[in-house]
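Q: Is it fine to ask for two folds in a single conversation?
A: Yes, each is treated on its own. Send the first.
Q: Here.
A: Result:
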Amino acid sequence: MSNEQKVAIITGASQGLGAGFVQGYRERGFLVVANSRNIKPSSDDGVIAVAGDIGDRDVAKKVVDTAIERFGRVDTLINNAGIFISKPFVDHTPEDLANILRTNIYGFFNITQFALQDMLKRNSGHIVQITTTLVHQAISDIPAGVAMLTKGGLDAATRSLAIEYAKKGIRVNAVAPGIIKTPMHAPETHEYLNGLHPMGRMGEIDDVVQAVLYLEQAKFLTGETINVDGGQHAGRW
């Protein structure tokens, strides 16, 4: 395939938001390398699936190497893979912490380093972190202190990397969703979860996909976090 066609790497790509990002970027004409632990091969020649734990540095390198070997470049990285555990802080185990750090921090560190190395060769690229609106507006009914150690860190790293690489032609942004209607939320919880958003509903996968695609085309926007949460981050209601 032509190496002039843009290429996106998407982690956590097998379902939910990740699968939505794959579809959205394909509709924009991007070639995609999709990663998750158990992702299956795609019937779409424009999507290459690389299975494995993104917290494993060798897996992260394989993902980026695959993008370069098959498609010739890396233009966009969507750091979507993540673990979110909601329970009281004192109930978290060291194993919880290790698992969250492995995916949310080590996974981000690994894949972003390798992707940046290719982007820097062309002085062009875009990196997006998927965080959570809880970074900016905590909710007492959703205790998530350990997850916020990582998601808050990614939010801060977004701005830091945006400034570090602004003159290199590489933009770095984040999208912070509220609670999104995905298979992880059982239907019987929807009424309650709808009420956690000022607009009275959970977000849809496409709401988040469209925010990320907006960032893709907003060429003068970097270091920004877009909250896609029905107004949840704005305050109490």
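Q: Second one now.
A: Result:
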Amino acid sequence: MNTLAQVPVEEGLFTGPAEAPQLIGGHCADCGGWHFPAQDNCPHCASLAVHRTPLSRRGRLWTWTVQTFAPPVPPYRGDVEGFMPFGVGYVELPEGLCVQGRLTVADAALLTIGMPMELRLEPWHVDDQGRQVMGYAFAPLAA
């Protein structure tokens, strides 16, 4: 079986690729605030006492929409002619923050605000070095 090496779309964004990936957020030791993606200073209080911490894999769909047209090129790298609509939404994690991301489905019949969601890694494209670039998305959990 010939499989491509996998690399994250951005180093330090999530753990993996793995069967149980986690986003890497920032948690401030001074104010207790959470943020994603992680950064060196706290966006809530400007403290530098931020610890990079894996976030919960599961949350609830806070809101969503469907991207029905190809984004501008660049930064979009996909096939504009063969563009397929995709879901995008905010998922509220138990840490108290909402994370924006792609959804694995774009069908209104399958998405409901408040439904449980789980983090997944998905292939985005093959880079110039022949590696599969992976990004994150949220998938509905079966009830």
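Q: Anything structural to flag on that second result?
A: Two points. The chain is about 0% helix and 40% strand. Strands lie at 6-8, 24-28, 34-35, 50-54, 58-67, 86-92, 98-103, 116-126, 132-140.
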